[in-house]
Design a protein that fits this description.
- The chain has one domain.
- The termini are far apart.
- The protein has ten helices and two strands.
- By secondary structure, the chain is mainly α.
Length: about 260
């Protein structure tokens, strides 16, 4: 029986300098950060087709569905504990976040590059409704950022973990805390993603397809994440579940009232 040992990525580190580690951080920041920035523009401009493949309307919708499915599969597979446990047998645990960010960024760029435009249905909002939808979009961006700051250990690109690894520090375990927007809804990042996705002033056939698929995926992902959080925090999270809405913030400070 052959036992695989994790690849020692920081074997060339001397005096805190580790070229492979900096390469991993640079790739994660580049692919993860740039793809996230372009995705915001991608949503705001109404998913314009960047590469016209000359497909008919029916084939376009099928092709766009495949692009979404490809991203969903990669994203959902790599975030599961089973896959991360397997991957930790190949690379150090502290590099898994960056590895995930690199591949998520790559697959998101593929989706945006090859997305095909379909205008068999096209509705344009103008006037005050246009301004309202644009305001909701930017509100979603601002609140998404605020919500991410509520998570002290939020590290979307896995860079903080690598820095700790290079410095020889041990990553701190996660703890259950409720602050900021998490007092209104259990998954504010997902809620504000949905707000950005649906606050579009130009609704086309491909946009409706995109919105529907991503909404379904986010809802399914929320239920799967709930299961992981219960496994991690037990009764603490079950109590939080009973008090605070999962995805739609329809109560006024439910968690604050619970604590009183």
């Amino acid at each position: 029986m052959t036992i695989k040992k994790p690849v020692t990525i920081n074997s060339s580190c001397k005096s805190g300098v580790c070229i492979p580690s900096y390469v991993a951080m640079a790739l994660s920041g580049l692919l993860g950060g740039v793809s996230m920035f372009l995705f915001i523009i991608f949503l705001y401009t109404g998913l314009p087709g960047q590469m016209d493949l000359g497909l008919n309307q029916q084939t376009i919708l099928f092709f766009d569905t495949l692009l979404c499915a490809l991203f969903f599969f990669q994203h959902s597979l790599m975030i599961r504990k089973g896959f991360r446990k397997w991957l930790s047998g190949l690379i150090p645990q502290d590099y898994i976040g960056a590895f995930y960010s690199i591949f998520s960024g790559l697959f998101l760029l593929i989706l945006m590059l090859f997305w095909q435009k379909s205008t068999s249905i096209q509705v344009e909002f103008d006037g005050m409704l246009n301004l309202l939808m644009r305001a909701l979009f930017f509100l979603g961006i601002i609140c998404f950022y605020i919500s991410s700051r509520c998570l002290k250990q939020f590290d979307p690109f896995g860079i903080r973990e690598i820095v700790s690894h290079v410095k020889g520090k041990t990553s701190k375990g996660s703890s259950f805390t409720v602050r900021g927007t998490y007092q209104w809804v259990r998954h504010p990042l997902y809620f504000f993603c949905l707000l950005m996705i649906w606050s579009q002033v130009s609704v086309t056939t491909d946009r409706l397809l995109f919105n529907g698929l991503w909404t379904l995926w986010i809802i399914i992902g929320t239920f799967l994440e709930e299961r992981d959080l219960i496994a991690a925090f037990g009764d603490e999270y079950r109590n939080y579940q009973r008090t605070v809405p999962m995805l739609i913030p329809y109560k006024w400070f439910p968690w604050k009232h619970k604590q009183q």
